[in-house]
Amino acid sequence: MNAEIKILKPIQPQGLTLVVGLPGIAYIGKLSVDYLITQLKADLFGEVYSKHFPPYVIIKEDGLVELLRNELHVHRTEAGTDVVFLSGNAQAFSPEGQYEVSERILDWAIENGVKRVYSVAALVTDRQFDAPKVHVTATSADVLEEAKAKGAEPLEHGIIGGENGLVLGLAKKKGLEGACLLTETHGYQAPTGEYVIDPRAAKAAIGVLTQILGVKVDMEPMEKQAMEMDEAFAKMAEIERRMREEMTQQGKRPSYVT
Amino acid sequence: MLDDITIKNVALMELKDPVAVVGSPGLRSIGKLAIDQLITQTKAQSLADLYSAHLPTIYQTQPSYAADPSLPGMGGAVVEGGNVDLPRVQLFASVEPPLILVRGYHANFEGQFTVGKKTVDLLVEAGVRRMVVVAGFGTTEKKLCVAANTQALLDEMKAKWGLGTGYKGPFMGFSGLVFGLAKLRGIEAVCLFAGTQPVEEDLEYPDNEASARAVEQLNKILGLMPP
Asked: Inter-chain contact A59–B169, Cβ cutoff 8 Å?
């Protein structure tokens, strides 16, 4: 099981679009795609397992055990085309593993007539903003123009770490069209080093992505979550400010340890 | 010499619907202690050994099950009872009741899935359809709880033995992965967790009392006579 797709319910997708949102910085990709899966009531039809996922299992609140995995959900749009969402609780750990898992998924998508590949990722910035910008990079000028028309700004240069970026690079290599949406975030981390979710950024990504996919979702639950995190981020910023102040004041006068 | 995995069949034994019991040196070594006790108690015979280049003798991580991709450990030999051998996962068989007792061994990061999967493959080949994993979980309470890969098995544990859920979170190492992989191969699996107080300086420091508590419960679940 270097990378294995377990199909739970066979599907025959029409005009398939693949949308990838795996856990990464501020969980923007995962939050965005999970939100769309929930709001659109997309059907779980497949699971992805790999020896390249971190080697442990999760015991859930209900006492059931779960291997780390990716999931495939499908949603049929009003236009009669299918969107397949790839999300999950892990990314492959090493570059080799990420290549293997991404290639396996793209090969499945190609076998099923994929038309476009989109992914959602984070763009970490120090820029202060009221609303995060959504940037885009694409496999072609045409796809880039389409995303620009939906409100995304082209990304001039940068890197997209992990499978949310790799899947687009590999898609291009395999002759597929697609784009990666990158939303601005400050990328706060908890003291344990884990990223703190950024629903405000995810909301911005969803705003562009839903236009691209031609779907509509209720944004109120995401807005509520974003407001809660806005408050938490404001508190974190205040703590940071106070700590900086205290450190500056301590630096002004001599201190002794006895 | 060793590619990834080598199996040495020590004995050929036909077991009818064997139940697998899995333990490895995890938190407070409860799983390992419990399996060793059951091997002694049932006079189980060695069935197969699984060797792998991914099994270190010296771990660079503390505890051994906290696999880290940049710390693969060191290969080497182990000496037990005056005999030298390589580190290995050992399968023992008891005919009555039909049990396969798995004495697990933590592979390094690179090999954890490979070793776990091969172990589950071996159990499938041996006709195993049910697995009981035994391990420890950190708590100040001296209690037992379970997790499973089906709701039906959780319900059974509650109804038959009064065992409820009680641990949530990650389960690392050999036993955790074997537990997780079982479902993909159609094995229903339950894990019996014994509560134990972690010793921060040495998380694998043996807790004989918690292990004995787990074994007492395993004896009931497996239909074994107490020692």
From this structure: yes
